[in-house]
Structures are given as structure tokens and as C-alpha cells.
Input
Amino acid sequence: MKPQKSKILSNTPPLTRRDALKLLGSGALVVAAVPFSGCATSHVSRSPSKSVTSIEPFPLSQVRLLDGPFLEAQKRDEAYLLKLEPDRMLHNFRVNAGLQPKAPVYGGWESVRTWADIRAHGHTLGHYLTAASLMYASTGHDEMKRRVDYIIAELKECQVAGKTGLVCAFPDNSAQIDNLVAGRRAVGVPWYTLHKIFAGLRDAYLYCGNKIALEILVKLSDWAGDVTKGMTDDQFQRMLGIEHGGMNEVLADVYAITKDERHLALAEQFCHKAVLTPLSEGRDTLNGLHSNTQIPKFVGFERLHQVTGKPQYHAASEFFWKTVTEKRSFATGGNGDNEHFFPTTDFARHLSSAKTMETCCSHNMLRLTRLLFAENPTAAYGDYYERTLFNTILGSQDPDTGMMTYFQSTRPGYLKLFCTPFDSFWCCTGTGIENHAKYGDSIYFRGRLGGAQEDSLFVNLFIASTLNWKEKGITLRQTTAFPEVGKTRLEITAGSNKKFALHIRHPEWAATASVRVNGRTAESSTHPGSYIVLDRRWAKGDVVEIDMPMTLRVELLPGATDSAAVLYGPIVLVGALGHEVKPGDDLHVNERTIGSVFNESIEVPTFTGRLGDIPAKIKPTGAPLTFKSDGIGKPNDVTLAPYYRMAHQRYNMYWKIADA
Ligand SMILES: [Zn+2]
Output
């Protein structure tokens, strides 16, 4: 029987901005039933959650980074994106379609024997499409769009020549998908890899407006429906025992565009009940599971909740987020050891691993966090987002080469290893190029709380940037040296007499926060982990200054009483232990050998004293975010500096504390 094809392309209406945001998975579609009972004056809001109608981040194109560490990271990422050659990433796509490749294939996970059994060939092209699309939205640089358009035109040629709708770079074309569908043993994680291509096509459409990308995506989705249509639910669920990325999420996105019920049905078929059921019932069955296989499933559940309103999906995602962030994360916000969740009582045993905290896991946890925030804008999501972004994501990039981490090691005295530019192409290289292209996507949100007449503006992150709130005629400039100082400044730089409530996150790490408007104290809060709300008319020249005193503190390793990390505000400080390597010498081809290289033994000091006394024994050195232990280090005191800045030398994150 000839497979039925979607007919949406001819009658897809043009995308409105609000549609685009919804499609980006950020608009909460569910209207909560409980009316908003808050007052409209200045106040501290602890839980706006039950009253929310719709919250969404601003489009990346309306936010621009200003000078600071995030803009620097974005620039390094852009430079790397420009070094990668589309024709090399396209090599195997053309081969599979019977076309002559135009340039040699890249190495690492893209082609080399060591990794062939992952079947990750072509994943980089998918990530690249996403990263370049995000970078275009973040910068407006035409070269990014030009590259996206070129790759899409090439993929179209491949799809037409390949005839089935599938576009892929697997060396055996569809063989492993065929095996999975037939219930035979399969090599690697082909659906995981295909998900990256689906997502890249989606992002080329959403951020660059490339309509051919949508056409290819719909045909690819139809192909996925065709090849799996004979499967029973049981057979499908067995197939989902193999890592399959965010197939449920991206198919929900496709459905949101096409409104074709078959795409929604397929998205729901891609929901793995072995984790959906228990987590939706509040049962944590994550021990021993591969973390980065699970996280994208929950991103997809939350996205499906937005699309379908089914409560089970949200219950699962919300519970998953809570258990991972509250019970399964290290101080930086990262999770897992050797890519797996471990029993929450076993942190101490895993601390010596060099393979803790896969960077992809943080990337995907942040994607989940912003979706959940859109559903329920409570400060806890902003707090986790900040902690994980400032530590694991900013800290994942080599400040010299722009290359990115795979594991972020908690092993005392280890160092960060980064990918090579052309011979690694890890999963974390793929999510890595996306990470630094979208820092503007979660600084500001807007939405109308139930009962409110106007959209509110949420300032969730303290990152130097401008916001162009076009619809309101407001532009806002945030200038800050945070996290070097616990202050930020917002100035309305255009707009007159506009009424809206400004929600400023009072972070969980600051005991107090105070706000001045045009030089006069307007509000102060003693409720960390809440929002300070300023509801008034705003005009050009209005200045809001926020003070959030940062303090040093220690945070115990989960389940331990004698091992703690040192934080200053949300910033994890690590001991700078020296033993430098030259920039470039810590670029590493093979992620599997992380932990079995650079293994010379390094002395790591311990701290002595009562746990509660430690912060007072750590003194500022005068250099930004740099401290030194004072008489508690054994055998010697140590300099403590931000984990995010640490590169090319040995460090220590958790301190053994004697007499604790
Ligand atoms: Zn990874």
C-alpha cells in the first residue's frame, strides 16, 4: 500500500510570533483554573503558580548579549561554527542518497571505527543546524542563515534522490532502524541520531524561516510513521528500550506545526512507558538508568503536556525534575556518573570518578527547566537554571580554544578535558555548539498572570543584555558584572508610560534582596527563592537597581557529612591546584579514555574544622571571585576560584572536612 503523505505544506498558514513561540515549546497552553488573588501593588510574590495563564520566553532575536563572559562564550562558539564545513558534515548524507560527496567526511563519532557501533553518523549535522539557527537568532549574522539555507538545500536534494523520505548518514542507511522495527538486534542508537536531524530541521524552520526545512521534516516524519506503522504497542515499547533522544518532543513540535493527528499519535507512541508510568506516579525508578537517555524523554513529556493537556505527562516531568535537581545533582547542577543515575546514597562512592556530570545532561535539564517554568513560573526553576548555566554550561567551554567538555569531573585533582575541533564530534560537542548559541533564551520571560490586564516581565537571570519588547514598545538594558558582584541594573531605554509588573527573581542564595527605583528604595525581600514584583508605569530613563548580597557558604555532598563544596552566591568555587597544562594539550579525541589519562597523583588538601566554621576561614584575595583558605587547609591552604573559569589546571570541587 502506498503510504499516505501529509498535505499540510500547501495550507500551512504563515507563522505568527506567538505561534512560533508555542512551537518552540515555550508557551504554556493550559489555562489554570484558580483565579489570581494577588494585589496589583509592589509586593513579594512567593507562588504565582496557580494563577498563570501563559508564560513564554522572549524570542532570541529580541535579546542581545552585552559584554561579559556569556558574550565571550557566544563569540568563541560562533568562531567554531564558522570553522566547520557543511560539505564535510553532509558527506554521508550524499553517499546514502547515491550522490557524489563534495568533501571528505569528518572523524570521531562521524566516521571512525571506534564509534561506529553508536550509529551517531550525521548527528553533528543535526546539532549544527540547530546551533547555527540559534546563533542566527542571537546575532542576526547573515552567514549563519546562509549556512543553514545551504545545508537545507543539500538535504532536500538527498531526500529527493533517496526516495523514501529518510535522510541520514548511517553507513548502512536504514538497516538498524529496520532491525529495531522488526524486533531484531540492532547496532547503536539510530533514533537518537535521527532525532538530532529532526530537531535541526525544526530549528532551521523556526529560527531561520526556512520553509524547505519544514517540507523535509514533514516527509521525514511521515517516513517514521510509515516504517513503524505495523508495530504493536508492545513492539514499539520494546524498541524504546534503546536510547531515542527526544523523538517524542520533536514529533509533538511537528504536530504543533502540521496539526496532522498522525504526527501527534506517533509522538505519543514514542513515549516510553517504563519511565512515564512510575515517574508520573511519584516513584523514582531512576537508579542505574542512563541519564541522558531519560532526560530528553521528560522534555518530550512536558512538551506533549503543552500540546495535549494530559496531566500524566506533566506529573512525570515535574516529579522527574524535582528528584534530579533535589536529590541527584552535584553542586554545579550536573548529574550522573559514567552517564548513569546512581543511588542517591552513593554520592561519596562516585566522587572519585572522572566521568561524572556529562555535559549533555545539564543541557537537557535546562531545556526541561525552561519548559516547566513556562507552565509554572516559580523561582525554583530560575534558581536551578542559574546554578547550572553559570557552572556547568559556562564552565564547559575552553576559554582559549572554544572546545567543550564531555564529562565534568568531580575526581579530586583531575582537570577538564575538551573535545578536538575535527576528530571528536561527541554528543557533548553537538549539544555544546547549541549551548553557547542561546544564552539569551532564558534571561527574560513574559506572560499574563490570571486576572492581570497586562503581560508581566520576568527577569530571571542576571546577564548583561538588552531586551527589545517590541509589542510593548519597551527596550530595556541590563548592565551587570554579576557574578563578580551581587548587583544588577535595569534601565528602560525606550518607551513611555507603559504599565506592567516587573518580576525580579530574588535568588535562593541571597538572604535578602533590595530594589531601588530611580534611586529610592522601592522594595526589599527576605524571601529567597521568590519574585520581587514592581507593578507600575514605566518610562524611558527609569532605572531599577537590585542588590543581592553574595556570601560564601558550604554545601554538603548529598548523603555525606564530611564532604562539602564551597559556593559564593550560585558560583561553585574549586581549589586551583596548579599542575598546569598548555592550552590545547587538554583537547582530547576519545571521551572513553577520560579518567585514564592525566592520572599522575596530585596532592589534594583537606579542610580541618567544624563545617559551620569553614566559610569564615575562607578570605577574599582582592581578585574577582577569588578566595584563599586561611589556616584550615591541610597540608596547605588553597586558592579557590570559580569552577566556570577553571581550565588547564587541576582542581578540587568537594573538600574532605576533618572534625566535621
Ligand atoms: Zn554528551
User: Anything to note?
Assistant: The pocket of zinc ion is lined by residues 292, 358-360, 406, 426-428 (CB under 6 Å). The two ends are 71 Å apart (CA to CA). The chain is about 35% helix and 20% strand.
